[in-house]
Amino acid sequence: MPNILKSLAALSFIPMLLAPIAVQAQDTAPTDQSQIEADRAAARAAREAEKEAAKVRKQQQEEAEKAEKQAQKEEDKKAKAAEKAAREAAEAEEEASEAKNKEARKAARNAEKDALEQRDSNAADASVMAAPLVPTPDKADPDNILYLDLSTGGRVTIQLYPEIAPNHVERIKTLTRQGFYDGIIFHRVIEGFMAQTGDPTGTGTGGSDLPDVAAEFNKFPHLRGSVSMARAQDPNSANSQFFIVFYPRFSLDNSYTNFGRVISGMQYVDAVPRGEPPSSPARILQASLKSQNKPEPNYAAQAQPAERAITVDDLNAPISN
What we know:
Helices cover 48% and strands 13% of the residues. It has 321 residues and is an alpha+beta fold. The longest helix has 120 residues, at 2-121.
């Protein structure tokens, strides 16, 4: 019995022992629920924070890309500006080089002009050099004196030089004896340069039926009054055309065959109308050698009459049969 009582007494303490545990269990249940809620809230906050961080990162990335594009744009702009500056510098350098080349060409032209002027200033010396080839008319061979009777009103006397251009002189004398030059016009007359004739067509492209003459270029200078053979591009294409020089033109030396010189009557050559061709060209009325003893023509009779103006009376006049 006592043992049972002791056991019962001991069991009576069990509720007392279990009571705190039950209370603790009751207190623990709400705490766990709050923790879950707290964890959920923390998770939601973390997700929100992550979303916000992702948004910030995206915004930062967009801003970085935008800044990179702007920087690239600025670099491209600078590169284009540098390229433009380089191009302008190259163009400026090219223009400067062209200006230098122009100046060089101008200087070369001026030097050439000065050289020609210097040669012109030496014309007197050239005339002295040529003097032995010009015999006085009264002592010259009459077969080497050419007369050109011009429509400008007088006779031009030309000394021929077979010593320096024998074949050309012989061609001129042959055509003169044939009467080839009679009536032919001066078809090309350039002021300050020369008067050209000898083309029966009057176009500058005609000639005689005789074969062309090979060049006989010589040291005799082209002075005022020099008579030289015309030709095409081929140096050996001279035929019948010739020209008389108004003023010294030394650039023609050794390029055209000089075969004679005017010794009197140059004023009649000076009076030849200018043009290519002239509107009213002068003519060789008669060409002859001194040895032929041909008299001068009647210049007044052979001068071309001025064209009479048409009047109202002419228009009203009856037509005659």
